[in-house]
# Entry
Amino acid sequence: MIVPQGAETAPQGVLETLAETLGDMTPEVRKAASYVLENPNDVGVSSIREIADAAKVKPNTFVRMARTVGFGGYEDFREPFRQEIRRGGISFPDRARWLQSLARGGKLSKLYADMAASAIRNIEETFAAASDQTMKAAADAIVAARRTFVLGVGVNSLNARNFTYLADMAVDTIEAIPRPGSVAIDDLARATSGDVLIAITCKPYRSEVVEAVELARAQGLTIIAISDSPASPIVIASDHAFIVTADTPQFFPSSVSTIALLEALMAFVIADAEPDVISNIERFHERRHALGIYAAEE
# Structure
């Protein structure tokens, strides 16, 4: 689909056209288009030189990109984005109109719209129930701890291990439990009052997580609980608690808000840590680039 020159079009239509034609672009033009798709809010406020510098391409690349999708040049291309800002739009797409449009295509389209709406709502409600102060307090505890254990079973095992994987790029005091071939209460046997336990479980609450939290509490660990209710057995008497919303139209509870919360907590841990933590992350990625683990950018 090519956008007709002079036609009235919304930013979302432009972004959809870019996405559809991405595979037909040259590597440099694709790099420019990818930047726009990932940073649409920059288009309406950035000059061609500014956005080219940010995307690490030449300004003329953005002219070629604009012409690829039917515009006369970059100024024509960015005009819909500028109009959206003048109308008071702050992000693309317009969520309300977008969600309504998804639901018009029959039963599966309605399910798709319901899934999208519930994911967005879950994240909004989860972050509304927390605050930067509660997040910082939990991060402070993790940074000060001798060791931090991250406990999740079932789907939350993957969430706990993802948090630990990211943390390992910066610090080596965080580990996921239960370890392979072990059970959580055994992994906590040598934990002390200088340690932290991050425990994750939602309805129906997993008994091994509840049992591990009770043991950790008796051993004096600081408990950071992530669950779906203030009445959750792991939240009651915890030191730091985060209530996630996990509603979904499907049978299984959603993990979207739990993942988003853990990512935010990790960001606070890194922000709260010593300056050499950033150096650790940089060295980690430099080593991976040097070993060829990452594909070279075109």
